[in-house]
Design brief:
Oligomer: single chain
CATH architecture of the largest domain: Alpha-Beta Barrel
CATH superfamily of the largest domain: Aldolase class I
Shape: globular
Strand content: 5-15%
Strand order of the largest sheet: 1-2-3-4-5-6-7-8
CATH topology of the largest domain: TIM Barrel
Number of helices: 19
Radius of gyration: 21 Å
Order of helices and strands: HHHHEHEHEHEHHHEHEHEHEHEHHHHH
Length: 453
């Protein structure tokens, strides 16, 4: 298979982009306002934006794109760590092989205990997190975990974040009915990639780079990509991420389902002083805005690595999914005394997160309708590009939030949430969809659950 990341080409593109004129930036922003996306060449130029007026115009446009394609909806999920054993020695990770601490892999019984705690908080969507060590957490155990969670709990969708693997293993994950496969390249700079993954299984750059291809060929329809911001020059990595996105669209007729944009954070035996490419808050905001303009249909995920204030701001400028009430530890929901993979900043409870979102006129969502209706992969890309899915997203979000408010909310939450949700239903423009949403809303008030369009 051809290598689609050409470092010389990207470096030349970025060098050329340094001379981008203000009029060229204006022209790109004008095209961005059409909300049809931008090329990786446009992205390389926007990453060089210097004029504060143009920067603010860009961010305002990103807010408009977010509003058009996502409205005020925000999907919520929680990570579930089941093993911190790892044979890799990633220099930036608290779980690296050389770190000496008491590791564990949760049994199925312990996993169900963790999930039960998450369920009691109100979670419906989880992201399964696993280190790379088949001796301690095999694919058999991962598959058994997925099957047990689906059969023994009320969790409706499991996304999976595991190490790059074979097409055959991706076929097994597909048959297990996972949601999105999440896999980060970490950095697309090949030389830097080798530096931060010394003597590791993960140190095979092309194995990592082509994993999404194998996953799609193995039957997984939705795949998520991302980079760890701070490892390398962010301009190189974001341009390469867009090239990767274009590669998937050209080859498979589908984009990444989501972009994840974690920033490098302190961790066990990890000092940020060792990383010269850390990005500022202002650079981070620009990255989110640029990706929202470039790929309007791709979800953007933001974790609890970021503060509440930063998350609130970026929700307005492009982010469409956030984790909530997260623990980056194995068994962390039942046991606080564990080594964390990285430091967290937003430690609000799920209740408080949802309350704050509603108070800020944001609509939390636990919707899993597209997965269960078969609107995934290429079909999802076609449906979302046509605008058809967007008509269903708001009512489905309203119904999942109503379910949370009725089952987990107290009087204080219901006092602000119920009028807010009625307002959201009445704002649905399509008469037929609004009528069905009102019918489902009423049925849920009467005790029914898990209704979706």
């Amino acid at each position: 298979m051809r290598h689609f990341i050409d470092k010389d080409y990207i470096h030349a593109l970025l060098a050329e982009a340094q001379t981008t004129s203000a009029s060229e930036i204006d022209e790109i922003l004008t095209r961005a306002s059409l909300m049809k996306g931008l090329s990786h060449r446009d992205v390389a130029k926007l990453l060089q934006i210097k004029d504060e007026g143009q920067r603010q115009t860009m961010r305002n446009l990103a807010s408009q794109v977010k509003d058009k394609f996502y409205g005020n909806r925000l999907v919520l999920f929680a990570p579930l760590y089941i093993s911190d054993y790892c044979k890799n020695n990633c220099t930036y990770c608290g779980y690296r092989r050389d770190n000496d601490f008491a590791r564990r892999t949760l049994s199925i019984e312990e996993i169900i205990k963790e999930v039960t705690i998450l369920e009691k908080l109100g979670h419906k969507r989880l992201a399964l997190e696993v280190g790379e060590d088949a001796d301690h957490c095999s694919m058999d155990h991962i598959i058994e975990t997925i099957e047990a969670i689906y059969s023994q709990t009320g969790i409706r969708r499991l996304n999976v974040n595991i190490a790059a693997t074979t097409k055959e293993n991706y076929e097994r994950l597909s048959n297990a009915d996972i949601g999105t496969l999440i896999l980060f390249q970490e950095t697309y700079d090949q030389a830097r990639y080798y530096e931060v993954h010394p003597a590791s299984l993960k140190g095979d750059y092309e194995r990592q780079l082509l994993a999404h291809h194998r996953a799609i060929e193995g039957g997984l329809h939705d795949v998520g990509g991302g980079v760890l911001l701070g490892l390398s020059d962010y301009r190189f990595d974001i341009t390469a991420l867009m090239i990767h996105n274009e590669e998937l669209l050209e080859r498979f007729g589908m984009e990444f389902h989501t972009f994840s944009l974690p920033r490098l954070m302190p961790a066990y035996n990890v000092s940020l002083d060792d990383y010269p490419n850390l990005i500022s808050d202002e650079q981070f905001i620009d990255i989110v805005a640029i990706l929202r303009l470039a790929a309007p249909h791709v979800g953007i995920i933001l974790s609890t690595r970021e503060s509440k204030e930063m998350r609130d701001y970026l929700i307005q400028h492009g982010v469409s999914q956030i984790s909530a009430n997260s623990k980056a530890t194995v068994g962390g929901y039942s046991d606080e005394e564990q080594v964390s993979q990285f430091s967290l900043s937003d430690e609000r409870s799920l209740y408080q997160t949802i309350y704050d979102l509603i108070a800020d006129n944001q609509l939390p969502s636990y919707c899993t309708a597209c997965y269960r209706r078969g609107r995934v992969g290429k079909v999802f890309h076609e449906e979302v590009s046509s605008g058809r899915i967007a008509k269903l997203c708001k009512p489905n979000a309203v119904l999942t939030t109503l379910e949370y408010v009725l089952d987990y909310g107290d009087e204080a939450m219901q006092k602000i949430a119920l009028p807010f949700l009625i307002k959201q239903v009445n704002a649905i423009e399509d008469d037929q969809i609004r009528a069905v949403a009102i019918q489902f809303y009423t049925r849920m008030l009467q005790g029914e659950r898990d209704l979706y369009l």
